[in-house]
Amino acid sequence: MTDLKSRLAAGGDLLLLPGKLLHQGECRTGLGVLIRGGRFQDIDDAEALCARHPELDPLYLPDHLMMPGFIDSHTHLTQSLGKSLVFGEPSEIFRRIWVPLESSLNERLVYLSAKLAALECLRGGFTAAVDAGTRSDGCIGALASAARETGLRSVVGYICNDLGGTAKVADQATILARAEQHLAAWEGDPLIHPSLAVSIPEVATDRMLARVSGLSAEAGVVFQSHVNEHLAAVERSLVARGQRPLEHLASIGALGPHVLIAHSTLVTPQELNLLRDSGTAVAYNPVASVWKGNAIAPALQMEALGIRFGLGTDGTRADGFRLMDAGESLQRAGFGLATGDSSCGGGWLWLDAATSRAADAAGLGAVTGDIALGLAADFLLVDLDRPEFTPSHDLIWELVRYGSRDQIDAVFTQGKLRLWQGWPLDWDARALMAEVRELSGSAIAGAGIQRIHPVASSHRAEALQKQAEPK
């Protein structure tokens, strides 16, 4: 294994001959892949590929699956310092926890939070992630730098709220000027892809929503927003505008193929038609629904209607395999059991939704999400010599049900080995974690966070005390 690690990390051209290759929706044997200049240069029968490139020493990987890296279609890289503070809390935790925390972070803390989150993404097999934008003031460069240093391909949103929900709210002209600067700042960057965002529709004027969506379309980037996630937000929109949030965005022309809507858990049949007809994409965040949501996005119905969607974590936990399992499990629990649907996507849908479909939703379909000629060499080497994959009868289903991040030996982005068995090769992850531990306590204490429930140990003590009280 040491020799394998060294050869993978050496750089330059790589001629890989994996035991199995996830290619064109199938786990196939007998194929080889040439990686050159950070891209998939050639894919063919292993023998033919080796014959075409006699100058290269092929690297045999008989016990490994080579597969595309996962794409997280919706996350929050600057929320990693909070983590379990949101556990057991009622919905709309962003108002009481995330907005205060992110707004209080200085540039160093934004950098540390984003780098820690990016490390977790890569450890979980995510080679790319869509960040919804940080609410801290003037620190987006630190976020992007942290992500780039880890090697995580990132779609980085710039928040354009003009009615609140960020550390500082500038005037419309300033926001739009900064948005255009953000779009220009990362032009040509191999790993950072700019995006524009409005946190939720109610924190921006109609003019801003329409302008930012239009600006994104003109620039060929994704416009992001959290929409129809919580019942309270849907009802506030009905009271304020007489429309649900998704209906409101449609009415002002802010939907379209360039738009990525996070959640869409509370959608009516009419709103599903709006998504379908506009070509708008959805980030289906199943773990977020379990941990803090009001409902489950009807992903199977979206699939039937041809609505584009990808899987996202919403910053919950960064494990691509567990995300696929959650995506299928929630559809089964929420819809399949009631209708007798025992396949619920047949396994393949969730693998697609975590890779190629998520890349399409994130605006990265021409860049990554598959092992295909010309795409960036963002991929995983998964160890199949494990009890979970023995015997193997249907590897795609097995990846969804039995896969976990500890089975990932290697994580590559842009043709470079970033992690080996969970740890980076060219920077000190444990030093990062030590600094986070040192600084996170004071950061949380000074953020003005409001939690409704106590931590688990205190909650347990309260429950036991109530049990002991005389009846």
UniProtKB/TrEMBL annotation:
The keyword Cytoplasm does not apply. Residues 66-417 form the Amidohydrolase-related domain. Keywords: Hydrolase. The keyword Hydrolase applies. Signal peptide: none annotated. One of its GO terms (molecular function) is hydrolase activity, acting on carbon-nitrogen (but not peptide) bonds. SUPFAM superfamilies: Composite domain of metallo-dependent hydrolases, Metallo-dependent hydrolases. Belongs to the metallo-dependent hydrolases superfamily. ATZ/TRZ family. This is S-adenosylhomocysteine deaminase. It comes from Leisingera methylohalidivorans DSM 14336.
